[in-house]
Amino acid sequence: MSQVRTRDPLVRVLTVIAVVVLCAFAFQRLMVWHDSFFDLRIYMSAVNWWGDGHDLYDYAQPDRVQGALYFTYPPFAALLLFPFGLLPLGVTQALFTLGTVAAVVVTTYWLVAPLARRQGWPAWYAVGIAAPLVLVIEPLRETITFGQINMLLILLIMMDLLVLGPRGSKWTGVGIGVATALKLIPGLFIVYLLVTRQWRAAFTAMGAAAGVTLLAAAIAPRASWDFWASALWDTARVGRLDYTGNQSLQGLLARLVAPEQPAKWLWLLLALAALAFGMWRAARAGLAGDAVTGLALTGLVSGLISPITWPHHLYWFVPAIVTLLAAAQRAQAGRRWGWLAFAAGVYAVCVIGVVSLVDWGVDAVPTDTVGLFLARNAYVLLSLVLLVFLPVNRPGDYPTSRAV
Question: Which of 119, 223, 245, 295 is a Cys-bridge partner for 56, taking CB atoms 3.0 to 4.6 Å apart?
């Protein structure tokens, strides 16, 4: 009788409503209100400044923590953002928020629908529970409250790897290429295509990235020269390395020695080690047919090796959790609980986050206790743990190639 009741559509609808309400409450309680679409304001102010005839990469906006922040994306991103600068800021904020939520729903469907079918659940039910849970984690809270474009990049990358690629589409790689032209670091997914021997998709991605970059150069030659010749190489434009929000390996090192600067050779050594090991594991996953683990590992590597990685860059914990849930589905009872506990632990860290609950202030101070080291580097350490222990599943554990 209880089995019948749990399959009742009304029970499922009420369950989804309850999850949405609880997650909305949690989001409101955990959200950092002072963010106030800060990054989106920089985007809009910068493109409007540019539209008034100034040099795009000369725009600077004061920041209480990091002094001044600049427009740091390639010119192609500025061209896409330019029309939004013509709209009232409130309209643009609403559009970015709705776009992020819609992208979360779509990408969550791509990730969890196969697991739901194997469990005997309707896809809408799994997505209705999972998507609100995704929106509660700090990387998504920060994406929304800062007005970031990260979920557009995630959507483009996942469309290639989880939808078009498994179907053998000739368009596979275009999304990764466009994402790379928008924000550079997704270029690591071109490396993933190469190490998993997806040659056509890799060259398609390279062609797409080069094509839209050249188009931007033809439309905005001065801005393109400024970016590629100067702004790209100035990491001080992005923010302080030691700030707790910087959850990269270089951020971890900077917090150990603040206010001094970390040794570049040590960072390069650690970054190369993470790149080599992480992409080796990602290649093994991809070649074994586990695109979700390959996706998660490549994303985690990108966060570790980037000079600056903010919490809103770290969506990649979501596919990592899905990988752990897929492993739990196929495991025997004892190990199943182990994988589930691992997934729950990853999710808990992502909900608590590194900057939402603690104001770390503006002083550059070293992390001189174990507790501070763990708290201020939670995402870096979690990424390293997942790089080592994230399981590689069989393709049938989430048959994205046919079910999506």
Answer: 223
